Amino acid sequence: MASTFSLLSERHFLCFLCRNIFSSPVTIPCGHSFCKACLCHYWAHHQSNYCPQCRRVFTAKFDISVNRILADVSDNYRKCRPEKPPVEEVQMIQERLQKIERLLRNTISFACLFLKLNSCLREVRESQKIFSALVNSMEKRHKAVVAAIEERQREAEKRVETLVKELKQEIQELKKEDAESVTTSTMCPSEMKDWSKVTLEPDPCIGVTRRALSDMMDKMKVEVNRLSKSELKRIEKYTVEIHLSPKTAHPFLSVSEDRKQVRHTDKLQEVPDNPKRFDRVANVLAKEGFSSGRYYWEVEVGEKIEWNLGVVRQSINRKGKFTVCPANGFWILSLKSGGQYIANTSPITLVALELKPRKVGIFLDHTEGRMSFYCVETGVHIYTFTDTFTDRLHPFFSPGRLHGGKNAAPLIISSSCCSI
User: Fold this and answer.
1) pLDDT score for 8
2) More confident site: 363 or 190
3) pTM for the structure as a whole
4) The CATH number of 10-80 is which of 3.30.420.40, 3.30.450.180, 3.30.40.10, 1.10.357.10?
5) Of 82, 217, 316, 387, which one's alpha carbon is 20 to 30 angstroms from that of 98?
């Protein structure tokens, strides 16, 4: 029986109306068959009797009786065909398959991300190894240079001591000979050479030592400058936008509309007083404040002959006179009108610079307690304050006095960093 049904398709046993296997099938004159209940229900809702499948209209009346042969064949086919899973079960399986598919996609995405992160981590570790090797190499070179300098210095000192001893001995011998010659003669022979015009050449060893020390110091300066430039390049990634706060500006100061420039004027501005405004000293603070993390900004000082830059505690005294020092919440680097650079420590620290910076880079590491200044053009490190920062800190600016118009140029906060 199964082999017989295998030659037929299931569509031969499906009702056109309900799409299920025939139940009490009837055959109408056009030859098409339907479930009796389906056909009666269909004709009950239509005005004329016609075939639902081919649309043929029947004018003559005919008896609707069950096709027993087709009914038996349909029943046997229903018993022999493999059972289909319920629709609900199929839908549930499909939903589970979709969930599994989404899970697999997410797993693949996470795996790809993990592989990328792993690769990045390996690169970071390799970079750390290279950096550590470079640092170790520089430390070894530095120690070797220092040791060589100390050795040359010891050799030079020994040579100088030896020369001094020899000179003292010669002086004693000359004094002795001079005393003896006085007793034997009161005048020099005419053929004696005049030694007054003879110049003594310096010991060549001392000259060589001095040149070697000078060359070594020059090389060390070049190396230090190179390291400073590298450090400045590294901290540029912490650049932040800084804007001046007009509410804190002394009345003698004029802040630009974009809040990036401040200059000293020759007359008081008409501004309302408030607890945040400086009233005795021409200072202004930035709107931004920092309680943790690392930050870098640059200030153009140009050819100004006086200025003050740094950071201060948010809680500093802004009324009346005050002493600028770290103990009072000020970490400030200053250029005085005499051309002297000063770190406002207690007591003050004089800072020697070979070149006058036109742009100053300022790096604040609030977490590590470091406040550093750099010459942006050369990358040279100027000075670093070390302290424990516990309060919120604000960038500090003071363009200095006018000095008869010689110092009228503004301080300008750069919007972006310059590459070294």
Assistant:
1) 61
2) 363
3) 0.49
4) 3.30.40.10
5) 82
